[in-house]
């Protein structure tokens, strides 16, 4: 897809799979979800929650909303989280711990489900994520959230969806884009082309045409807001490179994103940072949400 030779062109099939399939690089990936489960269940049982709120007709077009406590008539800032799973796996119910970390800071939290491959295409997955943001902007006031103070974070494929949202022409949808106050993008994949060369593509069913449409390194970012990009220092170096490439893309369009490589974190345990107040990902998310 690129005019220059892709950096992965000299890799063997095995090397390419290691660089661009996180489950191959970290085969113990499931352990980290188990470690987060107590915090996840605590959030789902102790917080107020509006579960499975539909934002469209597809069964995966649903969100879980965790309203923050209100002070008088003031509306709370809103944060939306998009999970990873290489656009073909995972569910919002496993990410309620994000709300557990944010609601305590007065932030209404929306955990998003979106359409997944192979039942849907990546085009539909991106469209559903965008529609989730539009629905939240138009309806979050019903849950005590401020529709004009919405921030985003996403992990892995969810970071790609966050970048998709930053590339939307919101004015064409009748919305002032300033409602999006910031984005935190974690261990993202921003150009889907290398995924097309992995075994994961048996489920993704990517084509060159879909890749071209969904490559956010080629699309002009249209939402002017602060962006912070994180990636784990233990991740394969070509996966790390994606974060720098996307940050360069933002720079070319006049943005000034922060980029951080977090030492000693891999693709999966980097989400544990939401459970550790001293770690930067949670701090950046709170800062974006409350700005």
UniProtKB/TrEMBL annotation:
Q: Which UniProt keywords apply?
A: Hydrolase
Give GO MF terms, alphabetically. arylformamidase activity
Identify the residues that the record assigns to the Alpha/beta hydrolase fold-3 domain, covering every copy: 80-267
Q: Which Pfam families did the record assign?
A: Abhydrolase_3
InterPro entries, per the entry: AB_hydrolase_3, AB_hydrolase_fold, GDXG_lipolytic_enzyme
Q: Establish whether keyword Hydrolase is in the entry.
A: yes
- Is the keyword Transmembrane helix assigned to this protein? no
Which PANTHER family has this protein been placed in?
A: AB HYDROLASE SUPERFAMILY PROTEIN C4A8.06C, KYNURENINE FORMAMIDASE
Protein name in the entry: Alpha/beta hydrolase
Q: Which source organism does the UniProt entry give?
A: Limobrevibacterium gyesilva
Taxonomic classification: Bacteria, Pseudomonadati, Pseudomonadota, Alphaproteobacteria, Acetobacterales
């Amino acid at each position: 897809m690129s005019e220059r030779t892709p950096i992965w062109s000299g890799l063997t099939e095995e090397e390419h799979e290691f660089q661009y399939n996180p489950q191959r690089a970290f085969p113990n990936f499931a352990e980290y979800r188990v470690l987060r489960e107590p915090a996840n269940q605590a959030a789902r049982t102790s917080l107020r929650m509006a579960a499975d709120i539909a934002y469209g007709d597809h069964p995966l077009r649903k969100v879980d909303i965790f309203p923050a406590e209100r002070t008088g008539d003031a509306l709370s800032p809103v944060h939306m989280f998009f999970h990873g799973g290489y656009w073909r796996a995972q569910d919002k119910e496993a990410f309620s711990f994000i709300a557990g970390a944010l609601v305590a800071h007065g932030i209404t939290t929306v955990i998003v489900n979106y359409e997944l491959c192979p039942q849907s295409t990546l085009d539909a997955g991106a469209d559903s994520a965008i529609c989730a943001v539009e629905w939240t902007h138009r309806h979050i006031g019903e849950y005590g959230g401020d529709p004009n103070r919405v921030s985003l974070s996403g992990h892995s494929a969810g970071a790609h969806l966050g970048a998709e949202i930053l590339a939307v022409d919101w004015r064409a949808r009748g919305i002032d884009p300033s409602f999006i106050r910031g984005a935190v993008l974690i261990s993202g994949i921003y150009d889907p082309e290398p995924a097309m060369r992995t075994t994961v593509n048996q489920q993704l069913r990517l084509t060159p045409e879909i890749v071209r449409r969904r490559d956010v390194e080629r699309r002009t970012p249209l939402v002017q807001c602060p962006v912070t990009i994180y990636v784990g220092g233990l991740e394969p170096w070509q996966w790390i490179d994606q974060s720098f490439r996307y940050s360069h893309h933002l720079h070319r369009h006049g943005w000034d994103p922060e980029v951080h490589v977090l030492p000693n974190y891999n693709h999966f345990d980097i989400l544990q940072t939401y459970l550790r107040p001293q770690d930067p990902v949670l701090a950046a998310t709170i800062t974006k949400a409350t700005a």
